[in-house]
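Lab notebook page, bench 4
Experiment: in silico fold of construct C2
Operator: M.H.
Input chain length: 198 residues
Purpose: comparison with the prior construct
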Amino acid sequence: MSQIDYYLSPISPWTHLVGDRAAQIARKAGVPLRYKPLDPMALFPRMGGQVLAERHDSRKAYRLQELERWSRRLGVPLKLQPRHFPTNPAPAAYAIIAAQEKGGGDLDKLVTGLCRACWEEDRDIAEDEVIRDCLAAAGFDTALAFSGMLVGAEIYPRNLEDAVEAGAFGVPFFVVDGARFWGQDRLDFLAEHLGVTP
């Protein structure tokens, strides 16, 4: 059976712009969506990319312009310069991993909640209190912020290796049946591949 592997980072504004659209496509297509949080700062150099701080100023400026355009187009609020960016995305990623493994809540809501905390609410998603709030809002046991650290720490680097092997070179990145789709602006193509409307 097909599965959508969704490589993401809650610290990515492009992941924030995905919102729950990937989850809606997966539901329409009747295929599982597997969230695979990873460290984009470790992924970029391994796949020929550059971390944001090392990009040319013209590319940095264009990134902000595109974020503003897509935020407006999608109707998704986004602060171009959030108070807590960059921050360590690992604690939030661990919570996503642990919640996915444990079950019992709304995983899509957790991911969108963590992204919203950073990109709309100026909250630091590396802080336990923020992670616990997002877990609770999505119906998960808030103890996962602590108890999930071990499983998160184990799977997080594995997701990076999976991404490299799958040919993913950025986030958000979707892989299904060997077909690859990079970016929140490629979700229409993902839906088309799966035979559904976005």
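Observations: The chain has a mean pLDDT of 97. The chain is about 55% helix and 10% strand.
Next step: discuss at group meeting.
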